[in-house]
Design a protein that fits this description.
- There is one protein chain.
- With 81 residues, this protein is mainly beta.
- Helix content is 0%, strand content 57%.
- It has strands at residues 4-12, 17-22, 26-27, 31-36, 39-44, 48-50, 53-55, 57-58, 63-67, 77-80.
- Strands 5-4-10-1-2-9 form a six-stranded antiparallel beta sheet, with no helix packed on it.
């Protein structure tokens, strides 16, 4: 598995958006994996937002909003795929 790059800190089910606290930088177009116990899935970073503004890349330590393909929960780990 790739390196751990962050953790999900919040999930908004109505709009299928999660908040990820990043421990490493992340760019649009990169493939990531969400993992929690036996649950896991991969997706490409289609868009990221900070304060409702689209950003092409995020730096270590930032908290970003991201639309997810499947529901996630707080505590899901995010890896580079």
């Amino acid at each position: 598995m790739g390196e751990l790059i962050g953790k999900v800190t919040h999930f908004f089910p109505k709009i299928s958006v999660c908040v990820i606290k990043l421990a490493h930088p992340l760019k649009k177009g990169e493939k990531i994996k969400f993992k929690h116990g036996k649950e896991e899935f991969e997706q490409v970073v289609a868009s990221m937002q900070v304060e409702h503004k689209d950003i092409p890349e995020a730096k270590k330590g930032m908290e970003i909003g991201m639309k997810v393909d499947k529901p996630v929960k707080e505590g899901f780990e995010v890896y580079k795929a």
